[in-house]
User: What shape does this take?
Amino acid sequence: MVTGRGTFEKVLSFPEWPYSKKVFVLSTKHIQIPGNIQDKAEIVSMRPKEMMNFLSGLDYTNIYVDGGKVIQDFLKEDCIDELIITRVPLLIGKGIPLFGFLDRDLKFKHIETIVYSNGLVKSNYERMRF
Assistant: This one.
């Protein structure tokens, strides 16, 4: 998983660490990783393509990217092959928008949408490259 500092700090407020795989936190600021998760998270400062090469060198083939600014940066560098967007029936008044300005359009193909009984709607899209 690759996430930004803001999302990482939010997850630190959860009662338990929710991830089973290592989390790479993209940050240009120095932040401390709590002792209880030092082997579960690593702070890195890289651009998306550089990050993808780094993770590929560690034999990662599928990477989950989370956090508004991080997702925007990965989209800007065209490093997203699949989008899984889960919508919650709640409008949040503040935060970082999921999609920001892009220099060009990125085309995705709809794969499937699942509607859950609790109101969540999850849609999967695949990047179409020409």
DSSP finds three helices and six strands in the chain. Helices lie at 5-12, 48-57, 68-76. The beta strands are 2-4, 23-26, 41-44, 82-87, 108-115, 121-127. The radius of gyration is 16 Å.
